[in-house]
Amino acid sequence: MTATKIRNSDKREIGNEAVWSLSTAKPGNGVEQLRDDNNDTYWQSDGSQPHLINIQFHKKMSIAEVSFYLDYKLDESYTPKKLSVRAGTTFHDLEEVHLLELDEPNGWIFVPIGEIANHGGQKVLRAHFLQIEVLAMHQNGRDTHIRQEKFMVLDNHLHTECCTRLLKEVNSRHKSSSNSVALGRVVFGNRKKKMKQEQAKARRV
Known about the structure:
Layout (H helix, E strand, L loop, with lengths): L10 E3 L4 E5 L8 H4 L8 E2 L6 E13 L1 E7 H4 L4 E9 L6 E7 L4 E6 L1 H5 L7 E13 L7 E2 L1 E7 H50 L1
Antiparallel strand pairs: 1-11, 2-4, 3-10, 4-9, 5-8, 5-11, 6-7, 6-9
């Protein structure tokens, strides 16, 4: 599938809302370098393949796009050739959403993971946990360089989710309030009935 970029005005980056971890990293080339908005720095793995990036959010997120900054001219055999994007709730239920094959990439690679996952439907991927698995490098390299990685959500989708949550809260409070009013009416009605019975009994006496 051809990667297409979502307009900047329609999206927001949410990587800072997640907990990131790596399968391995060379000292000084870890998560901080992967997330520092500097294309001159990079994560460098330091171990056997496959190399993993784990991204865990505190709640289920509606992810529209995943993007990577890669530079074959500088990184050569460290440049990823094959990447797998996996999603789920925990480590134990991850499923592959997309397999990305690259040919000497230079610059940002945009993957509309929402459209891919939903076959052009909702345009978002709902997940707590994502994993990027680097399966192969160019020139049969062993370790990898990824210079930046970002996760995007659609602002209009965030707005819709926010409104939905607010509506649920209002409905819940209204229901609770309605139940309280109804209970009050029942209690008041019972007391009124009891008073009438007592008054009738007093008249008979």
